Amino acid sequence: MEVLYEDNHLIIVNKKPGEIVQGDKTGDIPLSEEVKKYLKEKYNKPGNVFCGVVHRIDRPVGGVVIFAKTSKALERLNAMLRKGEINKTYWAIVEGHPQKKEDTLQNFLKNDGRINKTFITTKEDPEGKPSCLKYDIIAKGERYSVLEIKLLTGRKHQIRAQLANLGHPIKGDLKYGAKRSNPDGSISLLARNISFLHPVSKQEINVEAPLPESFRKFF
Q1: In angstroms, how far is CA 4 from the centroid of its own chain?
Q2: pLDDT tens for each residue of the chain, 219 residues long
């Protein structure tokens, strides 16, 4: 497990594609349990160790994930997340080259929990939730582009659904229309950066995930 930042209140780790952040029906060991194990061993803690899940990223996605080490930090970070005070930047390798170098995508999205997929819908749909992101093309290859994405809302599978709707699905994301899978089962979406004011010290925290080789070859 790669720790990117740690203090008395929180720990930020680099999630590998394929790991789950929180336990689910698969029964696979989640990252939250790995963090607990790390904290227990590092600090020689007896009994149960607290590890609060602040946010999640999809299983096939890698990058920055925050966990709270105290209930007070968890409560404050959750409130910050709801208010949009935690800034997240993603990088994505997408098929093709979007027409506009930078753009704001605004759609209404709804999620079908039965098949775990998000769909574009209309403003009139009572299940539709307004969803907004900004993207900027930061690199291009022959068949792919690398986008930097700022999330302005936090809907389930939002980036995946909105980029697919634009006609440029994320590389490897078969669920949302990619032509082929990645060899390791990942999709080429990275939670690249997270920044916020520390819930206790109020200092600015800015943490970046290292670039996988699949992204590095574009630069």
Answers
A1: 15
A2: 899 999 999 999 999 999 999 877 777 899 999 999 999 999 998 888 999 999 999 999 999 999 999 999 999 999 999 999 999 999 999 999 999 999 999 999 999 999 999 999 999 999 999 999 999 999 999 999 999 999 999 899 999 999 999 999 999 999 999 999 999 999 999 999 999 999 999 999 999 999 999 999 999
| CA-based radius of gyration for the chain | 18
Phi, psi of 93, rounded to the nearest 5 degrees: -95, 120
Whether this prediction's pTM lies above 0.85 is answered by: yes
**Residue 189 tokens, joined:** 């979406």
Task: Show Cβ contacts of residue 155 under 8 Å, excluding neighbours closer than 6 positions.
Answer: 109, 111, 118, 129, 131, 161
| 92-116: b (≥16 Cβ within 10 Å) or e | bbbbeebeeeeeebebbbbbeeeee
Please give the full DSSP string across 160-176, using - where no structure is assigned. HHHHHHHT-PBTT-GGG
159 three-class SS: helix
Token representation of residue 34: 């790995």
CB 122 within 8 A of CB 135: no
